[in-house]
Each structure stands twice: as C-alpha cells, then as structure tokens.
C-alpha cells in the first residue's frame, strides 16, 4: 500500500490534456508543443508558486506550507521536474536564478550555466571537412554535453537562503521517482518526439523511456529507480556529492564510456566536475515601461535582448494609452525584437573572455540611433551596431542559433522573497544520454559551431572552461524600489520575444496576469514574422493587418511563462496555458 503522500502525489498526476498529433521536428521547435488548455491556471494569496507541472507546483506549495523559503520551494520544484518533466530540465542541466531577499533588500543573480570541459576544442562539432555537423546529429554527441551546474546552483542558494533541510526539499522527488507517477500526455508526446528525433545512440534512454520500443503506459505508474538512488545520495551527502565522490565518479564513468563509440570525444576529467563553481553576477537592469526591469546578464543574451527590445519599442511607438488591439504596436514589437537579436547574437559571450558591452548596448544615445534604423527598416536585414566606445567589429558574424528544452519556476514566499529560475537540458531530453537516471544536457550546441568566420573569431566560440551564450532570461520588475512582478519562460531563442510581449501586456496594457500570459505571441525569425496559430486567447485583430512584414508564417509557439504579480491583496500568479503549468497559492 502506498504511503498517503505518495498516493496523493500519484493521484495529482491525473489531469486531462488531450493528446495532439505528432509535432514536426524543426530547429526552431524541437520540443513538443502542447495543444493548450481552455482554462488558465491562476492563483492569488500571500505566497504563490508557478511551475511547469502540477506535481511540481503541489510539492513547492507544500514546502512553503511547512515554513520553507522561496528557495526551499524552488529546490523542491526543480527536483520534482527532474522526475516528471525530464524532457525540459533536470539535475544534469543548468540554469539561471534571480533571487530577491526582502529582508536585506538585495537582488542576486546566480549563474549555474554548463561549462565546456577542459579537453574541449573549438572545432568539436565540425565534421572532418571542417563543416558544422547537422544540428540533429550534433545534439546527440558526447561533445555536446556540458559540465552540469543545476545541483551546484540549488545547493549554493540553499546554503544562503534555505530554511528546510536539504534532504527535506528533495523528498517529494524521491517519492515520485521510486513510487512512480502517471506520465502526463505532454511527457508521452515528448518521448515519441525524441524517438523520432533519434535515440539509437542511447540504450539507457530506450530502456527507461521506450521499453519494448514503446513509451510507458499512460495508466501505469512510471518509475525511475536509478534517479531515485541519485536523489537519495544527494539528499544524504549534499549538493557537493554531485561533483566529488562516488556519484561524481559514476557520472565520469558514464560520460567517458561514450568514448568507445565516439573516438572524437576526449572525455571529462575529475577536475571538470570538482572545479565547477556557480558565478554570482551583477543583475542587468534598465528603465523600461515606467519600471525598473532586472534580468540575467551575460552569458545570457536573452536578458540584454529583452531590455533592448523594450527600449527600442518605447522609442519607436507611442505606448501611452495603447492596447493589445493595435496592430502597429505588434509590428513595432517584432521589429524591435529583430534588431535586438542582431546585437545579442554578435556581442554576447562568456564574460571570462572580457566584458560584454551590455551597458553601452543599452545607452540611451545608442538606443536612439538603433531606433532610427528600426524606423527606416523597410524589410532590410538587421545588423549589429557599434555601441559607444567601440569603433570596430572585432568578431565574425554568426548565424542565429537555437535552444529549446527549458522550464521556468517563479515563486514568492510569505516573507516576500522571490525566486525566478529558468533551467534547461537544451534540446528535448537533452542529448538523450542518461547517467544515474538523469538526462544529460546538450548545452554545448549553444556555442557557435564554427569558431571563426571571415578570418575573425566568433564571440560565442567554444573554448575550455567557457559557458555558452543562452537565451534564458529570468526577470524581476520593480516600482519605487519594490518588486511588483517576476517571470520567465522557456522557448529557446525566442525567450526574449516571449517575455517582452508579456511585459508589454502587463506593464503597458495593464492586462491581468492570466491574460498577459495567454495573449498571442509573435517572433521575428530572420526575414520571417512567425505569428502564433490558435493561441489560448484569440488575436485581437485580423492577422491580415500584420501584412507588410517580409514574410508571415502561422505556427504554434511553445512558450511556458510563469508569472507572479503584486496586487492590493498580495500576489497573483498565472501559468501559461500552452503547457501543463500550474499556479497555486497560500491564503
């Protein structure tokens, strides 16, 4: 007979999301897109959690009910997501955290991004002729797996801000991994998509997620005993056990065993794990939409792009009194996205190789000059600019990249402490390699495959010890020095596009959280304006009114925004209905 808590968690996994037809695989959307829900999960109270899965939200809320902090609830939620949403995030990935400490009135940015191992070479994802590997093939390579940072980030946050014991925060995930849970329709769709994407290189993935060549049964508890053992060891020994000791040796053994089938892979050393360190960085902040908006600095490019997008939009459009029903605002938003992308994809890299000119790229005079270029765009392809103090282009100009397989957790506790955390394993189920029941990331495909172009080095090139550029952009918004909104979203390269649209709705159009996350999305991708087909809330005008852009394409856009906003009674949270996210609150 199941323990009552285990039985409750098992029962909570029963919710109705109708399965959708198989989603085409593409570089833009390699993770399955859900058909969405008609209802929008929202909750209000003194403390709120919004995560990508109802089981994670329930476990996080229980942590808060037991006196835990926002960080305790975050650790609980992320550990549960490693079990029930392994296609998107897990213990062997990486993430970025923005944390607001209300007592100290301090905003911290923690970088738990993956790192290239010391034996990395710039051309590790090139073929014998020096050409980039096909993207799908590259995602499965051992050379695509970065040294994971998730556990180190969660441990450091807990050491500074946790109230519950570390073991207590991991227990719900241990229960789910050992007792089992009914796999959600989204998880089953993701397994089928991964099967089509390619899993022949990973016997471990096939054995766990495709027993007998088929996904697990929807009506039977799914268990991951190897992950349960990993979680128990971490609960007993603490976060450092991931990087030193028996578990670290197990990880090294599992990774280095891949050399037998991939001679080009030089393997990891013990120092790759033992030397991993979370980096505390100054948050990147700027005024926008009459608020102070703070987000993740480089190696996030998403934070810079988000702030640039809003600054350019404000310079090119009269937002005073505007509403979602004005096509011109949407057109200008898309143009601002494209010009912000041109800068971030050129300039952003791991700051270990020198400061990224983020402040200069947000300088009001520079934004004004870029805004003039946006106004006279006429369909021309945006190019990176020269910010103040820089008189030449030092890098080769790469094509845009792609990243997906990401999750967002946003939490505020009863004391007003806030955690906005974006985590990822990259592509759907990462590399599809498993070690200790954990999905291993493929984040090193976020480096530019070609380390130089036109005789110049690419800023975001692969080097040992470097962290690849990321689009993840957890964000907090302040008014008069007080936090009033926290959010983030999965969505790969489109993350700053998604968050800028949500902030536009929240801060300029005064839309409530549920509508802010559910309004349609659009995303400028090269010369194409992608507009969301069949969004949770309908387009507020005929899409023909967006014509005039270079090319218009309708398709699904797989966002997963988790938003929490302050109101007169406390806090209100909303989960993006495009996925199975859930908002829950304490009274």
Q: Helices and strands in order, then pairings?
A:
Blueprint (H helix, E strand, L loop, with lengths): L3 H9 L29 E4 L1 E5 L2 H12 L4 H15 L9 E8 L4 E7 L22 H5 L10 H12 L4 H14 L5 H13 L5 H7 L15 H13 L8 H11 L13 H5 L4 E3 L2 E5 L2 E5 L6 H15 L10 H21 L10 H4 L2 H12 L30 E7 L5 E7 L9 E2 L2 E2 L12 E2 L2 E2 L17 E5 L2 E7 L6 H14 L4 H6 L3 E4 L2 E5 L19 E4 L6 E6 L2 E6 L6 E5 L1
Parallel strand pairs: 17-18
Antiparallel strand pairs: 1-20, 2-8, 2-21, 3-4, 3-9, 4-5, 6-7, 7-14, 8-9, 10-11, 12-13, 14-15, 15-19, 16-17, 19-20
Helix pairs in contact: 1-6, 2-3, 3-5, 3-6, 6-9, 12-13, 12-15, 12-16
Structure write-up:
It is a single chain. By secondary structure, this protein is of the alpha+beta class. It has one domain: Glutamine Phosphoribosylpyrophosphate, subunit 1, domain 1 (4-Layer Sandwich). Helix content is 32%, strand content 17%. The protein contains 17 helices and 21 strands. The strands form 5 sheets. It has a 7-stranded antiparallel β-sheet. Strand 3 and strand 4 form a beta hairpin. The protein is globular. 57% of the residues are buried.
């Amino acid at each position: 007979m199941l323990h009552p808590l285990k039985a409750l968690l098992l029962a909570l996994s029963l919710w109705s999301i109708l399965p959708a037809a198989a989603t085409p695989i593409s570089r833009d959307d390699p993770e399955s897109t859900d058909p969405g829900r008609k209802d929008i999960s929202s909750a209000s109270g003194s403390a709120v959690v919004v995560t990508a899965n109802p089981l994670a939200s329930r476990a996080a809320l229980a942590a808060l009910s037991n006196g835990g902090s926002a960080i305790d609830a975050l650790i609980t939620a992320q550990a549960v997501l490693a079990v029930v949403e392994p296609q998107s995030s897990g213990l062997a990935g990486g993430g970025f955290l923005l944390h607001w400490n209300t007592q100290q009135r301090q905003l911290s940015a923690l970088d738990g991004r993956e790192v290239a191992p010391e034996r990395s070479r710039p051309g590790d994802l090139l073929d014998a002729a020096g050409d980039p590997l096909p993207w799908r093939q590259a995602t499965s390579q051992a050379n695509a797996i970065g040294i994971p940072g998730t556990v180190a980030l969660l441990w450091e946050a807990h050491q500074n801000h946790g109230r519950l014991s570390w073991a207590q925060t991991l227990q719900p995930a241990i229960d789910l991994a050992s007792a089992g849970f009914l796999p959600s329709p989204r998880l089953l769709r993701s397994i089928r998509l991964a099967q089509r994407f390619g899993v022949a290189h990973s016997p471990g993935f096939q054995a766990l997620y495709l027993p007998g060549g088929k996904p697990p049964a929807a009506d039977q508890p799914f268990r991951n005993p190897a992950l349960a053992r990993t979680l128990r060891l971490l609960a007993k020994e603490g976060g450092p056990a991931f990087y030193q000791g028996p578990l670290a040796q197990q990880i090294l053994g599992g990774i280095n065993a891949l050399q037998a089938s991939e001679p080009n892979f030089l393997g990891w050393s013990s120092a790759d794990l033992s030397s991993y360190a979370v980096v505390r960085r100054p948050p990147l902040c700027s005024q926008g939409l009459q608020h102070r908006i703070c987000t993740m600095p480089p190696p996030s490019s998403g934070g810079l792009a988000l702030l640039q997008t809003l600054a350019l939009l404000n310079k090119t459009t009269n937002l005073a009194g505007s509403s979602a029903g004005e096509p011109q605002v949407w057109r200008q938003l898309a143009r601002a996205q494209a010009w912000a992308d041109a800068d971030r994809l050129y300039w952003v890299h791991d700051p270990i190789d020198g400061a990224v000119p983020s402040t200069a790229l947000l300088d009001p005079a520079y934004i004004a000059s870029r805004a003039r270029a946006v106004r006279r765009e006429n369909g021309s392809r945006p190019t990176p600019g020269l910010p103040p103090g820089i008189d030449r282009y030092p890098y080769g100009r790469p094509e845009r990249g792609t990243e997906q397989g990401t999750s967002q957790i946003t939490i505020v506790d009863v004391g007003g402490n806030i955690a906005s955390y974006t985590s990822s394993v990259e592509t759907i189920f990462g590399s599809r390699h498993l070690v200790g029941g954990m999905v291993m990331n493929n984040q090193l495909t976020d480096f530019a495959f070609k380390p130089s172009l036109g005789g110049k080095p690419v800023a975001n090139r692969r080097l040992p010890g470097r962290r690849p550029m990321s689009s993840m952009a957890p964000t907090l918004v302040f008014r008069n020095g007080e936090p009033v909104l926290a959010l983030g979203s999965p969505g790969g390269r489109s993350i700053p596009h998604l968050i800028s649209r949500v902030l536009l709705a929240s801060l300029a159009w005064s839309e409530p959280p549920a509508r802010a996350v559910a309004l349609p999305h659009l995303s400028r991708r090269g010369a194409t304006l992608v507009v969301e087909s069949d969004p949770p809330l309908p387009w507020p005008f005929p899409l023909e009114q967006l014509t005039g852009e270079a090319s218009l394409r309708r398709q699904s856009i797989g966002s997963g925004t988790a938003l929490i906003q302050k109101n007169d009674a406390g806090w209100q949270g909303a989960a993006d209905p495009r996925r199975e996210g859930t908002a829950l609150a304490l009274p």
